[in-house]
């Protein structure tokens, strides 16, 4: 589950890394069992550069894709609105054009282009 894919940014081929800030657990004989890598930092044992966790990078990139849209739409008149900078402070917007007050979630919903009509049930 907690799989890592460590790479030295300097390109060292040894692939040996030192774990910093991790709780290392050992048995009675002092033999390594495992470590808790909560806030662990991995550095290259050869050049001491902070290692790059490629598995973590790809995870971060997937999170980037789920960002909120940059533009909101007024559910009443449909004009584009810029979202508030501090959305934590307010979740209700007021349209400057038609003065309709609506929630952030409401403004983020996609508006159907075209007139409202019958739904054609086409099963692709
Ligand atoms: Zn290195
Ligand atoms: Zn409006």
Q: Which ions, cofactors or small ligands are bound in this entry?
A: zinc ion
Number of strands: 10
Mean pLDDT, to the nearest integer, reads 79
Portion in helices:
10-25%
| Unreliable stretches | none
Largest sheet: 2 strands, antiparallel
Radius of gyration: 25 Å
| Number of structural units classed as domains | 2
What characteristics describe this protein?
124 residues; alpha+beta; 2 domains; two-stranded antiparallel sheet; two-stranded antiparallel ribbon; elongated; binds zinc ion
What does this structure look like?
- The chain has helices spanning 54-64, 104-108, and strands at 6-7, 17-20, 23-26, 32-36, 41-44, 52-53, 72-73, 80-81, 92-94, 101-103.
- By secondary structure, it is α+β, with helices and mostly antiparallel strands.
- The strands form five sheets. It has a two-stranded antiparallel ribbon.
- Bound molecules: zinc ion (2 copies).
- One zinc ion binds at residues 8, 10, 12, 44, 46-47, 49.
């Amino acid at each position: 589950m907690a799989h890592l894919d460590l790479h030295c940014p300097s390109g060292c081929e040894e692939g040996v890394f030192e774990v910093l800030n991790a709780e290392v657990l050992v048995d009675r004989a002092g033999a390594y069992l495992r470590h808790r890598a909560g806030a662990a930092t991995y550095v290259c044992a050869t050049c001491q550069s902070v290692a790059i966790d490629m598995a973590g990078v790809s995870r971060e990139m997937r999170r980037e894709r789920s960002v909120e849209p940059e533009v909101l739409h007024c559910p009443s008149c449909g004009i584009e609105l810029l979202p508030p900078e501090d959305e934590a402070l307010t979740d209700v917007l007021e349209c400057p054009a038609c003065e309709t007050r609506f929630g952030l979630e409401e403004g983020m919903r996609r508006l159907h282009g075209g007139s409202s009509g019958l739904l054609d049930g086409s099963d692709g």
